[in-house]
Amino acid sequence: MAKEAEKAAEEEGGEFADFLADVSKEIAQRVESLHTRATPAATEKKKTPVVADAGVIVEWPNVADRMIEEMR
Amino acid sequence: MSVVNYGTREITCKIVYYGPGRSGKTTNLQHVYSKLPEERKGKMVSLATETDRTLFFDFLPLDLGTISGFATRFQLYTVPGQVYYAATRKLVLQGVDGVVFVADSQSRQLAENIESLQDLHANLADEGLDPRTMPLVMQYNKRDLPAGEISAIADLDQTLNFRGVPHFSATAISGGGVFETLRSISTLVLSRLSAPATKGS
After folding, report:
1. Rounded to the nearest 5°, which phi and psi values hold at A29?
2. What distance in Å separates the CA atoms of residue B119 and residue B16, rounded to the nearest whole number?
3. Would an 8 Å CB–CB cutoff place A61 in contact with chain B?
4. What's the gap in Å between the CA of B115 and the closest CA on chain A?
5. What is the C-alpha to C-alpha distance for residues B82 and B50, in angstroms, rounded to an integer?
6. Which of B22, B33, B72, B101 could form a disulfide with B64 if both were Cys (CB 3.0 to 4.6 A apart)?
7. Is A54 within 8 Å of B14 when comparing Cβ atoms?
8. What are the chain A neighbours of B45 within 8 Å (beta carbons)?
9. From the list B11, B56, B199, which residue is nearest A44 (CB)?
10. What is the reported pLDDT for B145?
11. Which pLDDT band holds residue A1 (cuts at 50, 70, 90)?
């Protein structure tokens, strides 16, 4: 799988490709090492802001209220 | 903490660029954005004032595609550097996995760098995060300015980098050091990847 990621990274070209290749290697290593330790309970979704479509923050409760508060 | 989610086959990491106003945080993200292949370019969200200062934050979703069978997303944020946007900085730091501290190399900005670093530590602590162990990379930006106007790297490192974390010289305006910094913080964050054993993370 790491080789697949590296191949994909090579196709990107440029600074981003180098970055992606390095990140891919790191992830491949981490996933492999964690896989043996993973438990069935390890399925909760992370509670960080996510985007459904580019540029649209859909999961960040009260962010607008906080911004308005700061503007005052 | 960044998490490998075996249920949804996702890896999501949140990286925040922190530092004093006008140190080059937004410029870092703009350079990353400019180097993304067209098919990977989402929208970089920047909320700026008419004078181009970041008002709230910048947000760059970085979809790295499927790596080792996992949909991998990095979320890059900046905070507004101005002192009076303290609440926004706290908000952006929520759920952070790693921090890039973008310091302004100008000698006259040293006090602002120190103040911002102290602010970072205080805000991390307020969020229940340990500033001593949070993945952190220092970036000394604006190295292209005349030598008489900027501090030596050794001096900056001695003053700001008491944890001895990786540090990089950068000229973000031309892209120098930007990806090196991002690569370093990404590696640090990924090295702490964990599979959640309990609810949330």
Report:
1. -65, -45
2. 14
3. no
4. 20
5. 15
6. B72
7. no
8. 55, 57
9. B199
10. 98
11. very low
Contacting residues of A for B166, CB less than 8 Å apart: none
Contact at 8 Å (CB) between B32 and B182?
yes
Q: Say if B101 is an interface residue toward chain A (CB within 8 Å).
A: no
The ipTM of this complex is 0.82
The domains found in chain B, sorted by start residue, are 3-190 (3.40.50.300)
Residues of chain B where predicted confidence (pLDDT) is lower than 70: 1-3, 47-55, 194-201
What distance in Å separates the CA atoms of residue B57 and residue B63, rounded to the nearest whole number?
Answer: 19
Secondary element (H or E) of residue B77: strand B70-78
Fill in the amino acid letter for B89.
R
Amino acid identity, position A6: E
Q: Residue A61: list chain B partners with CB under 8 A.
A: none
What is the 3 state secondary structure string of A15-63?
HHHHHHHHHHHHHHHHHHHHHCCCCCCCCCCCCCCCECCCCCECCCCCH
pLDDT, residue B65, reads 87
For residue B83, give the amino acid letter. Answer: V
pTM of the model: 0.80
Is A45:B5 a contact under the CB 8 Å cutoff?
yes
Are the beta carbons of B24 and B142 closer than 8 angstroms?
yes
pLDDT at A62: 58
More confident residue, B166 or A71: B166
User: Is any Cβ of chain B less than 8 angstroms from the Cβ of A10?
Assistant: no
Looking at per-residue pLDDT, the higher value among B164 and A63 belongs to B164
CA–CA distance, B30 with B72 (Å, rounded to integer): 20
- How many angstroms from the chain centroid is the CA of residue A29? 16
